[in-house]
């Protein structure tokens, strides 16, 4: 590795570790403090899911915007959304086929698609304005309000929303303070407050290091900050979601695996981009409008038929197709940025070979799944009664 790369690469890696660790620490101890003060578990859970899934992206976006590197902010969010749906779901489906709850199909996945459509529409004029940032933040408020309403109605009917259940499980992290002296409780509370503040400091420091390292790398390789944001920074800030979803898939908790990814994308667009743009308008580069945002929108819209009612499973072939799509997208970014003379050849290979292969994997598995279901339904109707 060239000497000029050692420092920015090390700064980027150290910033990523500090960022993720700080976000985890802050969310963990803040939730314990909220539970101590008898804050509603549902409210705590919603806050944890919102901040826990988007804290790295939010910290990086705010820091990069403050440093005048808005390309990193925009690339980070868009790249994370694409990585969540194609990389993380692809890898998880390869580990274990993911079954989808109807709640995600009827509400959360359409909300994710709507958030991507809003992002596309708002970016067409070359920037996301403050007013558009406020609209995105309002989308989050509406989303959380509907979640709370649906959960209260479901509990009144004796049912449970898997998305809310995940939030409530995340909120149940407070220590058992029964029969503990009041002086000891106060000490533990002050300790949690200090650790929450420490986590916030690590979050800010890690995001600053990560942005500085990524900008230096971009300048060394002669690429713009958006490219680094779409690739290294996006994958780095998506590592917590990858770890959570991968473990959930291994444990066969498939609702949690898919819900984590869908929720993260919703919060990334509504919270991260919305809050950042409401502070200062975010300029969007033409290349981002032409390729990256449509790719993020495509990734969201593809989930609608893929996870539609009647086809409520992501199998291994679909996972392989999603992973292939993500690798193809990264290859496209690298060739356009670093090897433009090779790009026309790759474009031919992609449309003639790679894209048909992806469609065969995904559509073929869905067709086979529907065929098996129809055969089972037919057999159940024609099978003779016992006796």
Q: From the alpha carbons, calculate the radius of gyration and give it in angstroms.
A: 22 Å
CATH topology: A middle domain of Talin 1
Number of domains: 1
Order of helices and strands: HHHEHEHHHHHHEHEHH
Q: Tally the helices.
A: 13
User: How many strands, which pairing sense, and closed or not: the largest β-sheet?
Assistant: 2 strands, antiparallel
Instruction: Kindly report the average pLDDT value.
Output: 80
Cα separation of the termini: 76 Å
CATH H-level homologous superfamily name: NCX, central ion-binding region
Helix proportion:
over 70%
Placed side by side, the strands forming the largest sheet appear as: 1-4
Number of strands: 4
Secondary structure: elements and pairs:
Layout: H1 3-36, H2 41-66, H3 70-95, E1 98-99, H4 102-123, E2 127-128, H5 130-156, H6 162-171, H7 182-221, H8 225-237, H9 239-250, H10 254-279, E3 282-283, H11 286-306, E4 313-314, H12 316-338, H13 343-382
Helix pairs in contact: 1-2, 1-7, 2-3, 2-6, 2-7, 2-10, 3-8, 3-9, 3-10, 3-11, 3-12, 4-5, 4-10, 4-11, 5-10, 7-8, 9-10, 12-13
Keywords, separated by commas or semicolons:
4 strands, A middle domain of Talin 1, mainly alpha, two-stranded antiparallel ribbon, 387 residues
Can you describe what's shown?
The structure is a single chain. The protein is mostly helical and 387 residues long. It has one domain: A middle domain of Talin 1, CATH 1.20.1420.30. The protein is built from 13 helices and four strands. The strands form two sheets. The chain has a two-stranded antiparallel sheet. It is globular, with a radius of gyration of 22 Å. The termini are far apart.
